[in-house]
């Protein structure tokens, strides 16, 4: 079973490719989280968890879902992390998660995909994004081949800087940076409600036709990047920046 969490589509894209290559079913953690559905999941094939990288670890919201959900069948767990550049020492925390959940850790694959975190960085333009996506395919398919054969994924090198980023910087990122107080809508808003639909944690709602945020944000960038009118901004960080949102197929 391929389980994915996604903000702007990178991890969904990787999950789709892996599911096609392994002929396995998919499960959206976004939907599970949004509905509060932690019912038992069962798979005779290995579990493959596909998700983005938030400050050199998996998103806390995804970690919480995996810890709450019940799993039966296969004990093998693969992790595929999409990232703009690197995943740090996420492997350390994934091994701990597997130990806590009774999984056999089968490895991690770091997949370079277009940057989407426009609250801090720049997203690529469409041409560059498509180039990055195309370049990611061989790595994703190599990963899928290992999964299909139930082989361990190749080990990735971990540096002292990786350990520092995942251990020390990650908590600071959540305590200092992750907040929805900087989000606001502009007069370009058409009250379509897509931001409400896209938010995986029901943190966005419409009030008098305009989005409001409820204080429980995970900075997935779904609302700001998925807005069809680019009518959502984050402080003064996002103005003029390209939005990056990957639909089912680029």
Automatic annotation (TrEMBL):
It comes from the Bacteria. Signal peptide: none annotated. Keywords: Iron, Iron-sulfur, Metal-binding. Residues 180-209, 210-237 form the 4Fe-4S ferredoxin-type domain. GO terms for molecular function: iron-sulfur cluster binding; metal ion binding. Pfam families: Fer4_9. Coiled coil: none annotated. This is 4Fe-4S binding domain-containing protein.
């Amino acid at each position: 079973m391929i389980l994915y969490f996604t903000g702007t589509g990178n991890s969904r894209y990787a999950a789709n490719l892996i599911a096609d290559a392994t002929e396995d079913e998919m499960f959206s953690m976004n939907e599970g989280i949004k509905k509060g559905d932690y019912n038992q999941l069962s798979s005779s094939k290995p579990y493959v968890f596909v998700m983005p990288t938030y400050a050199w670890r998996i998103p806390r919201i995804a970690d919480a879902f995996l810890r709450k959900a019940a799993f039966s069948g296969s004990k093998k767990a693969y992790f595929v992390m999409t990232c703009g550049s690197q995943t740090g020492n996420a492997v350390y925390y994934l091994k701990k998660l597997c130990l806590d959940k009774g999984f056999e850790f089968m490895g991690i694959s770091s997949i370079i995909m277009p940057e989407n975190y426009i609250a801090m960085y720049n997203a690529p333009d469409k041409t560059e994004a498509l180039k990055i996506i195309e370049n990611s395919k061989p790595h994703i398919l190599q990963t899928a081949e290992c999964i299909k054969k139930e082989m361990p994924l190749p080990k990735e090198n971990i540096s002292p800087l990786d350990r520092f980023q995942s251990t020390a910087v990650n908590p600071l990122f959540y305590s200092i940076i992750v907040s929805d107080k900087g989000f606001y809508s502009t007069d370009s808003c058409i009250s379509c409600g897509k931001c409400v639909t896209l938010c995986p944690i029901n943190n966005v709602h419409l009030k008098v036709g305009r989005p409001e945020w409820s204080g429980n944000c995970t900075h997935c960038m779904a609302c700001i990047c998925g807005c069809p009118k680019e009518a959502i901004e984050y402080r003064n960080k996002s103005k003029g920046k390209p939005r990056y949102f990957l639909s089912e197929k680029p």
